[in-house]
Amino acid sequence: MEExxxxxxxxxxxxxxxxxxxxxxxxxxxxxxxxxxxxxVFSGGKRLRPVLTLATAEALGQDPKALLPQAVAIxxxxxxxxxxxxxxxxxxxxxxxxxxxxxxxxxxxxxILAGDALFAYAFRVATEGPLPAETxxxxxxxxxxxxxxxxxxxxxxxxxxxxxxxxxxxDMLFIHTxxxxxxxxxxxxxxxxxxxxxxxxxASLREYGRNVGLAxxxxxxxxxxxxxxxxxxxxxRKDFNRASAVRILGLERAKEEMDRLVRxxxxxxxxxxxxxxxxxxxxxxxxxxxxx
Length: 292
Fold this sequence. Notes:
Blueprint: H1 2-22, H2 31-41, H3 48-59, H4 68-85, E1 95-96, E2 99-100, H5 102-106, H6 108-125, H7 133-147, H8 152-162, H9 169-193, H10 199-226, H11 229-232, H12 245-249, H13 251-273, H14 278-289
Antiparallel strand pairs: 1-2
Helix pairs in contact: 1-3, 1-4, 2-6, 3-4, 3-9, 4-6, 4-9, 7-9, 8-9, 9-10, 10-13, 10-14, 13-14
């Protein structure tokens, strides 16, 4: 696990440096917009998604730095989803990663516009770097599919609508797979596409990404129920009226479901990458053991 953490930290530092390079400086006009964008992006975070992109690429023999713009784009999009998710009309959260949420610091209007700017700018960033134009087009389609009406946004709408009824297991599965899982799945697939992996490897790694994405959200539900608020860095015990895995399955069955997904994810990555997939295997195990 120590070696896993060391490698993750190396990837994370690479991503942080690239985010700093790509984002406009705070003193550009209008300053409030760029200050807000940087506040949202640099408020902490594991950088799970861009790390998955870079690690997948490296496991497939690609120089991970060749995919840095695409990894950065994914993190900008992820940040946009958090900014909008925290807004009063959606989840109405006051803290994210232990800090006041963007709308609490800059107001609702700037938070909405900063989220919009991160989303739009991400697609510009995704066109940068040395990858062939055809590969970049594949990646752009993958990212868009993870977000558009069949992805994160669809999951967010389903989550909001589920508050008006007693959600079912099918509701929970749909919301978790789309709202959280799709972008994690895409992060892995982008790494595979950027490495010119075979269609068989892309499919196997997509399965890995789908399973760890769903496991990640189930672990979030578990932490909401039994986690430490200071360690997690946001308000907990707030999802009991939502389509939470713990609400629908109970704590023990939710843990069992998460364990099953991690086992299947590990099997997929071992089949497609063998020993080169060790970091991705360790990532799957981290997801089910994390406390934040």
